[in-house]
Specification:
17 strands; alpha/beta; 15 helices; 442 residues; Rossmann fold
């Protein structure tokens, strides 16, 4: 498993070693075995914590759902801790009886940060509720997603019981964020108490390193459900008279969907059909930007979750338009569906797509290059098939069963480190400045 290394914080503060009854029994097993944990004979109780989960759409909800499913298939008890999304209650979403979902508070109104729509859980007594839940359930592993974002991940880190291993996954590629630089001294303390840190790509970790954060992360990329993305049925209203281009993205500034619309305007009418799956604050402006000669061939179908494989099955070309990405989940999904891809030359893309093999990579923001790439694939069905098959084979390396096993190994190592600390070994990483015992208030 690859790692990124950089200087770790040197300070170490003694952690209160007073675990609850369940944790004491688990620690006894660990210490009796010399600090080694066998997950095949002792399933873990895991909680995945994130502000983002269904019916919200995006890479993190997909990551949580499928990681949880595959951890449950490996015998672990998995809970997802998230929030409620007012106004989205009727959206059909995938469900799995093996996953317990707990929702605390409600999502705030969406705001634009880092070029993307962000949300935060709000509610009276939210900190007390998180503290009470973690104290009562005594999870073996608390796995927070997006540990530097409010609100639930930060609360889970702050109120984690001493015997619970804390793991975090870094999903986001940060630009030169002045706010992150300003808050770095405070947020660094939250990273310092973690027992394990995962990044979905080297570029995601490097973007935080450039902002001055110090940590060591193991790289475990986003995964994809190959069977799910191969299960789609062709939509009857999508004809096969002309090639169909698919974009699945939140319609927000950093996803640069307007580039494909502008590129389409440089091509003759009837060259291709465009389907946009997703919604967001830029929808109205994008609808107004559809080239006049292509209005009958451009379809905005809004948020779709359950039927996304059907849209992929009905498409011939997949476009990923974002100008910033860590390890883009939607791009990986298009590849798993066997579609040739066209995408911008950004760091996260280069870790997935090899030019002229799985698809075409165009210079950032170059509308003419987009037009040429789309025209080339639209007129060459053989090239589409060759690149689509290469994309499917490339995506197979990111199958969730493989990646869930790697995450499980990180959980085991993190539990072993936590057990040593609870036994009084202060040489392991950690700082007690943030993490509090739940029975002692905030």
């Amino acid at each position: 498993m690859s790692k990124l290394y950089c200087q770790l914080p040197r300070k170490s503060t003694k952690v209160d070693p007073t675990p609850g009854p369940h944790a004491r029994a688990r620690l006894a097993v660990l210490l009796a075995s010399g600090g080694r944990f066998r997950c095949d004979c002792c399933p873990m109780r895991v909680v995945l914590v994130s502000e983002y989960y269904y019916p919200d759409v995006g890479g993190i909800p997909e990551h949580l759902h499928h990681l949880g499913r595959h951890l449950a298939r490996r015998g672990h008890q998995v809970t997802i801790l998230t929030t409620c999304f007012p106004g989205l209650e009727g959206v059909p979403v995938p469900a799995d009886p093996a996953l317990e979902v707990i929702r605390l508070g409600r999502s705030s109104r969406p705001v634009l940060t880092n070029g993307s729509v962000s949300r935060a859980a709000v509610g009276l007594g939210l900190g007390r509720q998180v503290r009470a839940l973690l104290a009562a359930r005594r999870f073996d592993v608390i796995h927070v997603h997006g540990p530097l974002f409010p609100v639930l991940p930060l609360l889970a880190i702050r109120h984690a019981p001493p015997a619970s291993a804390l793991v975090a996954t870094l999903h986001t590629h940060f630009g030169g964020s002045a706010i992150m630089r300003l808050l770095r001294p405070l947020l660094q303390r939250y990273l310092d108490v973690l027992d394990g840190i995962v990044a979905v790509s080297a570029s995601a970790a490097a973007s935080l390193h450039r902002l001055g954060f110090r940590f060591c992360a193991q790289i475990v990329p986003n995964g994809v459900d190959l069977a799910y993305w191969s299960s789609g049925q062709r939509l009857p209203w999508v004809g096969d008279d002309i090639p169909t281009i698919l974009i699945q993205a939140r319609l927000e500034p950093r996803n640069r969907v307007e580039l494909v619309l502008a590129a389409l305007g440089r091509l003759p009418s009837g060259t291709a059909r465009l389907i946009l799956v997703g919604d967001g604050p830029c929808r109205g402006a994008l609808q107004a930007a559809v080239p006049p000669g292509h209005r009958q061939a451009v379809h905005f179908v809004g948020t779709q979750i359950a039927r996304r494989p059907d849209y992929a099955r009905s498409a011939d070309i997949y476009c990923f338009t974002a100008d910033m990405a860590s390890h883009p989940m939607s791009l990986l999904e298009g590849m798993a569906a066997g579609l040739p891809v066209v995408c911008q030359d950004v760091a996260g893309v280069r870790e997935l797509v090899r030019p002229e093999r799985e698809g075409l990579i165009v210079p950032l923001g170059d509308v003419e290059a987009w037009a040429q790439a789309l025209a080339r694939l639209a007129r060459d069905p053989l090239l589409r098939r060759q690149m689509g098959e290469a994309a499917r084979q490339r995506a197979a390396a990111f199958a969730w069963p493989i990646l869930a096993e790697r995450v499980e190994a990180i959980y085991v190592a993190s539990m072993e480190a936590r057990a040593r600390r609870c036994a009084g070994d202060e040489s392991a990483r950690g700082c007690g400045a943030i993490r509090r015992h739940p029975d002692r208030g905030t």
